[in-house]
TrEMBL record:
Organism ancestry: Bacteria, Bacillati, Actinomycetota, Actinomycetes, Micrococcales
Cellular component GO terms, alphabetical: cytosol
Protein's name according to its UniProt entry: Haloacid dehalogenase
SUPFAM superfamilies reported in the protein's UniProt record: HAD-like
Pfam families, sorted: Hydrolase_3
Gene Ontology molecular function: magnesium ion binding; phosphatase activity
Ranges that cross the membrane: none
Length: 270
């Protein structure tokens, strides 16, 4: 495999350990890769507000493509550099159709300014609801584009719910699943990790054949198939393992770091 000019990695389940932390070894390798002249960018389903706790680990790497491509975020300054949002009419149509099919569905919306959520929405227990979040029916959203629309049901089994929502969304938006139990993730049509990563790389004059991408879940598939080399960690979803160009160790075994270390051979180390 040719030496890449850009390394793009998912975070949860890929670069981060199961407890959500970045190992010292992986952090050191990422810094060394950048010092060797290879760009590093993180591409994650996380919203901007879930990246601040990782600022010390990732700030040196500049920007993060987050929300499955909904936002480009500078973690050093905690600034949303750009947003790829929904047309309000499309959001309202999707919400109406999903609610008709799943009456107990609860929605949340990630926007550049923060979180909007309905009272019945089940939050990730590892990430507290921010103080500036807005709690109100999703139908009252106005004035700011939605970067990523989230949906959950308490009554419909996770797999069945995701299948139902995906069918309802159809071609009106981009449907994704990043591994959170029963969480449907919906972006504007054409917004995926791959699309925004391609745009970001092109601004640097980097083509897909010069990119190594690492991931573990179905929402990583567009990025992995776009990149010159798509790597799956050993703990990846079967759909990812089936199409990856290369396999590395699991996230809890510093798999990404192990795959990158050969790039540093012959490089001076601090």
């Amino acid at each position: 495999m040719d030496r890449p000019r850009l390394v793009a990695s998912d975070l949860d389940g890929t670069l981060l350990r199961s407890d959500g932390t970045l190992s010292d070894r992986t952090a050191e390798v990422l810094v060394a890769v950048e010092e060797a002249g290879i760009e590093v960018v993180f591409v994650t389903a996380r919203p901007p507000r879930w990246l601040d706790s990782l600022a010390d680990a990732v700030a040196g790497h500049g920007t993060v493509i987050c929300g499955n491509g909904a936002f480009v975020y500078d973690v050093g300054t905690r600034t949303v550099l750009s947003a790829n949002g929904f047309d309000e009419a499309v959001v309202r149509s999707l919400v109406s159709d999903v609610r008709a099919a799943v009456p107990d569905v609860a929605f949340a919306a990630e926007r550049a300014s923060g979180l909007w959520f309905e009272s019945g929405f089940v939050h990730d227990p590892l990430h507290p609801i921010p103080a500036d979040a807005v709690e109100a029916p999703i139908e009252q959203l106005a004035g700011e584009p939605v970067g990523k629309l989230l949906a959950r049901s308490r009554s419909v089994p996770a797999a069945a719910f995701l299948e139902r929502v995906s069918a309802i969304v159809g071609e009106r938006a981009s449907f994704a699943y990043s591994g959170a139990g029963g969480l449907a993730e919906i972006n504007a049509v054409g917004v995926t990790k791959a699309v925004v990563l391609e745009r970001w790389a092109a601004e640097l004059g980097i083509g897909p054949q010069e990119v190594w991408a690492f991931g573990d879940m179905p929402n990583d598939l567009p990025m992995l198939t776009w990149a010159g080399v798509g790597w799956a960690v050993a703990n990846a979803h079967p759909d990812v393992l089936a199409v990856a160009d290369a396999l590395c160790g699991a996230n809890d075994e510093d798999g990404v770091a192990l795959a990158l270390e050969p790039l540093l051979e012959g490089q001076p180390r601090a």
